[in-house]
Write a structure and sequence with these properties.
By secondary structure, this protein is α+β, with helices and mostly antiparallel strands. Helix content is 29%, strand content 15%. The protein folds into two domains: 3-57, no CATH class; 59-100, no CATH class. The chain is built from two helices and four strands. The protein has a four-stranded antiparallel beta sheet. Strand 3 (42-45) and strand 4 form a beta hairpin. The longest helix is centred in the middle third of the chain and has 19 residues, at 58-76. It starts with a strand and ends with a helix. The model has no long low-confidence stretch (mean pLDDT 83).
Length: 102
């Protein structure tokens, strides 16, 4: 699995941070160069900009993005989801948030 930085969408730097599962063994691939934070995020150092930050599994991100695209398509099909400035109404934002948490 590839884990990409939130900032540059690049792999983590290797051999700066290393982690192992608490029950023994080793993580596969680039996962071993990331640490779980208490908030449940993966943290490491971006190989592009050398800044520390959050990382995500690119496969999980794709699944989440497809779901979000489906929600946006649904929202775009209705004119009453936008105000006079072309911004989403609060009702539409609440609906999107509800759907994202399903």
């Amino acid at each position: 699995m590839n884990y990409l930085s939130m900032c540059c969408k690049k792999l983590p730097v290797t051999n700066v941070v290393m982690s192992k599962p608490s029950i023994g063994g080793e993580y596969e691939g680039y996962r071993k160069y990331l640490i779980n934070t208490k908030e449940g995020n993966l943290w490491g150092v971006c190989s592009e900009c050398n800044k520390s930050g959050s990382f995500f599994d690119e496969k999980e991100k794709f699944i989440m993005d497809v779901k979000y695209i489906d929600i946006l398509k649904e929202m775009m099909s209705r004119d009453d989801n936008f105000d006079e400035n072309g911004e989403l109404t609060q009702e539409a934002k609440d609906y999107i948030e509800k759907r994202r948490n399903e």
